[in-house]
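TL;DR need C-alpha cells for one chain.
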Amino acid sequence: MGDLLVKDKEVVVPGQELAFSMDYLPTGGAFRENDKIISSQLGLVSINGRLIKVIPLKGKYIPKKNDIVIGKIVNMSFSNWFVDIGCPNEAVLSFVNTSEYIDKGADLAQYYSFGDLIAAKINKVTRGTIDLTMKEPGLKKLVSGKIINVTSSKVPRIIGKQGSMITMIKEMLNCRMMVGQNGRVWIQGMPEDELLASKAIKMIEENAHMEGLTDKVKGFIENEKKKLGVKNV
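>> reply
TL;DR here they are.
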C-alpha cells in the first residue's frame, strides 16, 4: 500500500496532502489529484480502512437521510408536526410516521405539543423538505433532562468508535443520553450527573483533535466525582 502522510484524527488544512497512493480512496472533504489525495477543508482526518475523509471543525448541520436527530416541535397542522432540527428548513413529522397509533383527525397536541423535544430519524430529504420518522426503537419524546448544543461535525468524536465514548460517560454517571447528528445532546439523570456529563461532552467538543481523549475524559470524570466525595468511581 502506498504512503499515508497523515494520522487518524490529525488536524489538516485545505490543500494539505493526505496520501500519495492509488490504494486509498477520498470521500467527504478530500479529493484526488493524480496519485495524491488532498484535503479540501480545515478539519480532522478520519481513516477507515482505505477510505480517507476530512471532517470539518466547524460548519452548520446539513441533514442527510438516516441521520438520528433531536428536534423541537415548533408548529403543527391537522396531520403534521413541524420540527426545528437546527437547519434553515423545518422538518416534517406526519402522524403516520410516529411510534404511536393516532386516529386520523385526532388532536395532535395530545401527543406532541409546542416545545416538546423528540428523537427522530430523517426518512427522506428532498429539495426544501425533510421528512422524519419515529418508527424505530429508541425514537421517542424526550421527557425532562437537559439539552446541550455542540458542533455537529464533532458528533462522531462524542459518540466514539462503536459508541465507546458516549457509553463510557453514561455508565460512569448513570445517565440516559442520546446524541443527535444535528449537534444536540440529551442528558437525563441526577442534576449533578447531568452537569458533569455536560462538562465532559464540552471537553470532547473542544479537544476533538487530541489523541487518547477517552482516557482523558475518564480521568476528568473520576477527578470531578472525587471532588464531590463520590466513592467507587
